[in-house]
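Aim 2, interim progress. The first record below pairs a target sequence with its C-alpha cells.
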Amino acid sequence: MIFGVGIDLQELKQFQKVVDRREEAFLQKVFTERELKYSKQKNFIQSLAGRWAVKEAFLKAMGTGIQNMRALKEIEIINLHGGKPYINLTGELKTKCTVLNIKIDASISHSKDYATGMVVLSRDKSFG
C-alpha cells in the first residue's frame, strides 16, 4: 500500500550557485561525509544535486517537507552495487519509518541541466 510519493527537480546551475555562495557550511549541514566522498569521484554538482533532490522527495513523501536542515543529514543517499540509490536513515526519521513499517524506494536521474529524485514509500497492507 502506498504511504507517500515525492519528487523533486533541481536545476544544476541554480544548485551550483547555492553551493558557491555557502559552500562548506551548506555541504556540512546537508550531506554526510560518505555522500561528499562519493560525489567527489563523480560530477560533483550533478551528484550532490541528485542527492539533494532525493532528500527533498523523501520529505515530501513523508508529508513534512524541510522543517529543519538537521533532518536532511538524517537522510543519507548511498549507491548499492550497480548504482541503485539506497536511502540510509538515522535519528528521528529512522525511528519514525521503523515504527510505521515503511519501505523506501528511490530513483535519481540526471541530464545536462537537471537532476531529479523520486521516492515511493509503501507499507504492508496488513500493518495497522
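The second target in this work package is listed in the same format:
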Amino acid sequence: MQGRIYSLVLLAAALGGNLAAQRAAGDSSLLTVDRIFGSQEFRGGSLAALGWLSDGVGYSMLEPAAGGKAGRDIVRYDAETGLKTILVPAARLVPSGAATPLDIEEYTWSPDGRRLLIFTNSQQVWRTNTRGDYWVLDLAGWTLKKLGGTGPASTLMFAKFSPDGGRVGWVRYGEYNIYVEDIGSGTITQLTRDGSRTTINGTFDWVYEEELGLQDGWRWNADGQSIAYWQLDASGVRDFLLDNVTDSLYAFTIPVQYPKAGETNSAGRVGVVSASGGETRWITIPGDPRNNYIARMEWVPAKGGSKELVIQHMNRLQDTLHVMLANAQTGQVRTVITETDSAWIEQFDELRFINDGKDILWESERSGWTQLYLIPRDGGAPRPVTSGNFDVLGVQRVDTIGKWVYYIASPDNPTQRYLYRINYEKKGPAQRITPTGEPGVHSYNLSPTGRYAIHVYSRFGVPPTTTLVSLPDNHLIRTLVDNDALKAKVAGLRVGATEFRQVDIGRGIKLNTWFIKPPNFDSTSRYPVL
C-alpha cells in the first residue's frame, strides 16, 4: 500500500531505584508488571451491553439490580432527558425452579420490541464464547422460556429472531444443523439434516474464522420466509494435534482440522432453504470451492423480502475478490465488482446498497488507500466518495435521506481516530464532526436516526471518557463515564519520559514508534529494550 504509515511500538523499560524497597513500602507511584497485569486497579469503568433502541431516542443497558438484589436489570435511558426506566427487572429473569436470575451475557430485542432474547451459560468455540443457552422473555406476560427443547445445555449458537419476532433460528453445536423454533407453540423445525464434524451448516471451521473473521453462518430473509446459510465440506482436511497438558494428570491430544499451506481446504457453498423446511437450493458459484473462499454473504435489502444475495468470493491466494449478485431462486450469479492486488487483498464489510438499490457503497484499496466509492450495480464506472492519502477506517452510518456517509478516519495522523461525514451525492469536502481540540482516539455508536451518539474519547495518558452527544454538532449532552478516579491514579504514577517518533524504513513507509524511557533515565547507562 503506497505511502502507508504503519504503527510500531518500541518500549524501552527498566525500573530505576531500589525496586524491592519501593514494593515493600507500597509505593503507589511505582508502576510494575504485577500491577498492570495482576490486578484490576487500572481497569476503567464502562457501560455494560449498551445498545440503541429502535426509536432512536432511547438506549438500553445492564445495571446491577435495584435494591441490591441479585442479577442485573435492563434499563432504558432517554437520550435527551436522561430519564431512567427499568425495562426488565432482574426478578423477571429467574427460571422456574431456580433461585437466582439468569446471568445475561448478551441480549437482543425482537423487531417489534415485545420479546427479549437472552444469551447465557456460554462456552468457548475456537477463540470466543459462541455457544450457550438462549432464553426468550415475553414482556406482555413476563413468561420466560428456554429454547432448544430437550437438547444438551450450552449447545445453541447464533440464535436470531425472525423479522416478525415470532420465531427464533439457531444452530446446534456438535451436530451443526440449523433449526427454527416457534416461540408460541414451541414447535422446532429442523432445516438441515446432514450436519456432522465434516459437514458444517450455519457456522465455520477454524480456517474461516481465523482467515476471514466468520463465526455466524446464516441469515434470515427480510420476509422471514427463507434462510441463507454457508455449508462447509471439511472432509479430507487433515487433523492438527494439540497437546492438552493442563486439564488432566496425563496429557492428551485434541484433533483440530487445520489445512497447512498447500494442503486440502474445506469447500464452502451457500444455500437457501425455506424457514418452514424443505430442500436447499444451492447457489452456483464458479471455481474450485477447495481453492476459493466465500468471504461474505448477505441478503440484498428489499422491501417485503429479497430475491438476491450479495456474495464476496475470494481465491485462496487472497489476491482477487469478486462481488457477486446471486438469484436466490435460480442459483445463478453475476459479478458486479472485481478487486485485485499484486500482494494481498481482504474482504470488506462496508458494502451497502443505496439509491433504492441502484448503487453499491463500497470500500476499496484500489487507489493504494482505503476509500469509499459508489458503484452502479448494473455496470458503470466507480465514483469516488472519499479521497486522499489516508485510510477510511469504518463506516458508522449512511443517512439515505440527507445523503451523508459518516465514517472514521485519520487524515493527518494515523495514530488518531476522528469522525467525519461527506455527502455522497454532492461534490464537496468532508466535514469533521469530532472537535479539533481533542487529539486522540474517538469512537462513536450512532443512534438509528443519527441524531445522537455514544462517544468514547481517550488519548495517551488519559483513560477513556464516555459521553452522550448530539450530531452533527458533537454537542455534549451529558457525561456517562468520566473515569476521574482512574485519571487521578494514572496522573500519580512515576513514569519515564515518552517520545513519539517516526522511522522511515524506505519505499515511502514510515513506522510510528512509541518510546518510553525508564524513570531516572541515564543516557550513559545500558538498558534492555522490550
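The first strand starts at residue 5 and ends at 7. This observation will shape the mutagenesis plan for the next reporting period.
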